[in-house]
Structures are given as C-alpha cells and as structure tokens.
Known about the structure:
Strand content: 25-35%
CATH architecture of the largest domain: Alpha-Beta Barrel
Oligomer: single chain
Mean pLDDT: 95
Number of domains: 2
Amino acid sequence: MREGISSGAAKAVHPTWVEIDPAAVEENSRHVIRDxxxxxxxxxxxxxxxxxxxDVAKAALAGGATWLGVARYGEARALRQAGIQAPLLVLGAxxxxxxxxxxxxxxxxxxxxxxxxxLYAARARAAGQPLRVHLKLDxxxxxxxxLAEEAVPFATEAARETRxxxxxxxxxxxxxxxVHPLNDLQADRFEAALRALEGASLRPRWAxxxxxxxAYFLPRTRHDLVRVGNVILGIRIRPDRPLPVQYRPALAWxxxxxxxxxxxxxxxxxxxxxYVTRGDEFVGVVPVGYGDGLARVPGHHVLIGGERxxxxxxxxxxxxxxRLPRPFPVGEEVVLVGRQGAESIGLHELxxxxxxxxxxxxxxxxxxxxRITVSLR
Length: 377
C-alpha cells in the first residue's frame, strides 16, 4: 500500500484505484472496544477483506486492539515480516512446516482435533520450545473443533504435553446476524464448557465466542475477547442495518472517465447489445470491469459529478459504460464505492445488488487495483 497519496495524485497515476483510510480503522477499533466493553481481536484475514492486512492491522493496534486474527499461516507470516509483533492467532488449519514457523515467530495456532494435538506436540518437543494454542470448540458451526462436551478430556490431554501452552478457547457463531434459536444454544454450550474447564482448573486465559454480529447483537457471547473484522472497517454487520453514526467506512473505490461521447438514438452498447440508446445520449467509458472484481450483474450505478448514473450494457472484463446526464471531461473522477458530494454508494448496496455479503464484494476487488492510503473525511 502506498502512503500519503491524495485522490488527485492517484488519478494522475492510475486508471482505477482503491482508497483506504487507516484513521477510520483506528477510530472504529476504539469504538468497538468502548461499545462492547471488551478487548478486541481485530480480524484481518483475506488481506483484511481486501483492505490491506498490514496497514489495517497497524491501525487496529493503534486503536487499542489486543490481538490480531488471520485464517491461514501465510497471512500471519506477512504480518510478522512487516514487523508486527502483537499476539496473533491463526484461526484455520496449518501444515507441518507452518507449525515450525509458528514456533519460531511466536504465532498462536488453533488446536481443533487430536491429529493437530499430536502434530503440535511433536514439533514443539523437536524445537525444544513452547507453542501457544487456542482450543477450538464446535458448538454448532459444524466446521473445525471438538464438540463442547469433549472440552475437558481434550484440554486434559493437551495439558499433558508440557511444550503446549493452551492460552485460549473459542468457538464460532453460525447465525449471529439473525434472531435464531441456535444462538442461545451455542452460547449455552460454550458457557457449559467454560464452567467444566474451570471446575477442572483448565480454563484458559482467553475465551472468545463473539464475531462482529455476536459482539453487537448478543452481549453474553463477548467473554474475554470479541473477534471483529467487518466493523473495524466500517462495514455493516447486515446490509439492511446501518452501523452507528460514529463508525466510518475505511474503503472507497474510484476510477477516472476515459471517454465521453454522444451516441445517436438506436445505437447498441456493449457485448450482446443489451442496451440501445433511446435517443441522443452521452455515454462514458470507465476502465473498471469484472476482471477488477466488480460483479457482472445488471443494475450497477456510479457517481460522477456528485450524481448517480446508471451503468449500461453488459460489464466488460476491463471496462464499463455509463449513461451520463451531460458531457464530462476525460479524467473526471468516478466513484464506484464511496462518497461524492451528497451522494454515496456503500458496499452494502453492492452486496444487495449482487446477492453477496459485503466482504464478498470487498475481497473480490482484484490485486491489480492498487490500494493507497488517504483520509476519507
């Protein structure tokens, strides 16, 4: 990610670019900690949902995050190589080589089954040093983890391995963004496991159950940490429910107009000629397409000159066409996600249009679209 470049400077260099505001991440992280009253594990997996993991991690830590969470070891490696030494949990499975790296880099791993227990213990003994782990329970997600009623025997087995340090225990909510009976059932199972572990003097320091949705909608799930990704980025938990006004989006996606022409009536636009001008119309071309990660569905709009304008014709791999209310000069700023004047297009709008989650939309933005840091205030 490039530092300190203005939107105008980006336009001079790039046909399309993503702007990331680290100050928004820092402020949002502070709000999460204040609003939940709980320490924060900032989730920065999948390159912080397309926002840039290193810069987002640094901003979240500056905002008071206690832990960082990633899905794969390669993501942890990138953070350590960037000089980030904060407590760091890999939420997914790892390879034998990655266990050795975790030992060397003091990265915490997820202990989710007996095969992992055998592997971790063997590599820690070979290295002659401790390996920190968080025990993963399956309370209803049906993904990784041992069943909640197995927590005590599994933790007892792990405690026999002197080189393993069981520093935490966690599970994951399946439907926390909905009113659903499974939410209370998962919370009950997790709490019962914690009580059993406490009774056996095996309760780890960090217990965490709440993802972004649970952290806000299900306070009983907060425990010792909340694991939040969406909200520190200013992304809504649900597309139809705005965040409190103090949270700010950290991402804007922009481009520049590369062509503006008056086309005669009856003129077809794009592959398949799915759009035909009704009369003389100004049609602009923007160098963004589905190869950049914009979903190839009808109904997109962009902002130009502070106005919302419809994308017409089928989205191309590298370009899109837009019907303009009047001529605009080549180089005019175009906003695909973000604010321009009084108008805005949020990730939640793309999610609804494309029938995806919001992080589907942000993580789909291709790496060929450069990320730059700016202030989006």
